[in-house]
Design a protein that fits this description.
about 250 residues; mainly beta; 2 domains
């Protein structure tokens, strides 16, 4: 009798974290510069050929490295992408010092839904990951975690309000003001001047939620756009699909 493998369909699950682990290397060796960086990218369905970084780690994140069960653990920075928006494979690329590709590297990505269920994608990295990149299958390496986990807290209600008369966008989180994106319009030219995130809401990704939603709305307007806000500049650098918005006339 052949065992049947249950494959999750992924509906409702989003990327909620991940880690790269390595056996046989103390955490200090990582800090000495043996690991350069790792990236996991995918071409989102319907994205017109734009590759998006799902997870990454670089030497800037050394303070978060730890040792656990004899392995060095590098927590990844991840984007909360919906699992159903991802294609059948993703590219995993890891750059290391010479010789480190022979070590035991494992990559783990964790997906959750708002009911508290979780899926885990895990793989030992082949040598292809240390060159041009490994095109890793997604669904084939997903497993359903044990049921019974505590339900995840309900996500906050996040809304964007456009105060066009006063020339700013307001981000509301559960009905409370979390941030502002301020702009100024002269004729058909819109200049983004600055953003503000209330201290209580900092470090939780709300600045990017504010900027992304505001830029989506600005894109619908027949204006040219200039940006003087460093937060917006960093957002566009990490999300190049918005780069065309700055400095180009939008059709009426």
């Amino acid at each position: 009798m052949t065992d049947q493998v249950l494959r999750p369909d992924g509906t409702g699950f989003y990327l909620a974290g991940g880690e790269l682990t390595l056996a046989g290397m103390p955490g200090r060796a990582v800090a000495d510069g043996l690991l350069v960086d790792v990236s996991v990218t995918a071409r989102l369905l319907g994205s017109d050929g734009i590759d998006v970084t799902l997870a990454s780690w670089s030497s800037d994140d050394l303070d978060h490295a730890r040792t656990e069960d004899g392995r060095t653990v590098l927590p990844l920075q991840t984007q909360p992408m919906m699992l159903t928006s991802l294609p059948g494979s993703m590219r995993v690329q890891l750059r290391t010092a010479a010789g480190d590709a022979e070590r035991d590297w494992k990559l783990i990505l964790r997906f959750r839904n708002h009911a508290g269920s979780s899926l885990t994608w895990h793989a030992s990295l082949p040598t292809e990951a240390f060159g041009a990149g490994w095109l890793a299958p997604l669904a084939d390496l997903l497993t359903i975690d044990d049921a019974g986990a505590d339900p995840a807290p309900a996500p906050p209600a996040v809304n964007l309000v456009h105060h066009s008369d006063d020339e700013y966008y307001e981000l509301l989180v559960d009905g409370q003001q979390a941030g502002l994106l301020v702009y100024h319009v002269i004729g058909s030219h819109l200049s983004i001047t600055h953003t503000v995130i209330e201290p209580t809401y900092r470090g939780q990704g709300f600045s990017w939620a504010l900027v992304g939603r505001a830029l989506d709305d600005i894109r619908t307007q027949p204006v040219t756009v200039s940006n003087y806000c460093p937060v917006v500049s960093r957002f566009v650098e990490k999300n190049p699909e918005y780069a065309d918005l700055l400095g180009q006339t939008r059709p009426a």
